[in-house]
Amino acid sequence: MSNAAQSFKTLIQGMVDDRNRYGQLKSLLKDQRQLLIARNAQELEALNASIFTVYEQLLENSRQRYQLLTQLGIPAGAHGLRTLFTRLPAANQSQLNTLWDSLEQIAAECKTLNDSNGMVLAMQQDVLQNLFNVGEPENWLYRQV
Q1: Do 66 and 40 form a contact (C-beta atoms < 8 A)?
Q2: Dist. CA 35–CA 117, nearest whole Å
Q3: pLDDT in tens, 37-66
Q4: Phi, psi of 143, rounded to the nearest 5 degrees
Q5: 3-state SS of 61-87?
Q6: Is 119 in contact with 29 (CB distance < 8 Å)?
Q7: Residue 43 to residues 36, 47, 48, 110, 118: CA-CA distances in angstroms?
Q8: CA angle, corner 112, sides to 127 and 57, nearest 5?
Q9: At a CB cut-off of 8 Å and minimum separation 6, what does 94 contact?
Q10: Dihedral sign (CA 14, 18, 19, 21)
Q11: Closest-CA residue to 110 (of 35, 24, 46)
């Protein structure tokens, strides 16, 4: 197998792995939301470590994908991948476009879940801040916005 063929195979396997990791991340982010709402700090700490591990794996695959595309002489990024796919037989193009679309979709879902979890955390912080100001109403009344 040529270097280019091996790089291409590694690239595709990385995309498959990432789709699976994003599925795992999606589940972890849903669990994170429940733990945030329950204010279960102990379990949340352990879960956050798992989330961080998945993030690191996704980051490493992204770096590898960038490097492989560069080695193949293809611009890194979604446009470069789509360009690479157009150089393949039609049957492969369809499969790889579907794979990339599903990867982009689940990544967007994870971003939405992560943003939502961030809002829950921010709301909890606001509530706690207001509770701390109950004994000092002047802090709450004259707080700068």
Answers
A1: no
A2: 10
A3: 999 999 999 999 999 999 999 999 999 999
A4: -65, 135
A5: HHHHHHHHHHHCCCCCCHHHHHHHHHC
A6: no
A7: 10, 6, 9, 20, 17
A8: 110
A9: none
A10: positive
A11: 24
For the stretch 66-106, pLDDT in tens is 998 888 888 888 898 898 899 888 888 999 999 999 999 99
Rg (alpha carbons) of the chain, rounded to whole number = 22
Q: Token pair of 5, please?
A: 């063929």
Quote the pTM value: 0.83
Nearest to 66 by CA among 41, 84, 87, 44: 84
In angstroms, the first-to-last Cα distance of the chain is 63
Amino acid of residue 41 = A
| Sign of the CA dihedral with 88 first, then 93, 97, and 99 last | negative
The helix or strand, by DSSP H or E, that contains position 140, with its residue range, turns out to be helix 137-141
CA 77 from centroid of its chain's CA atoms:
16
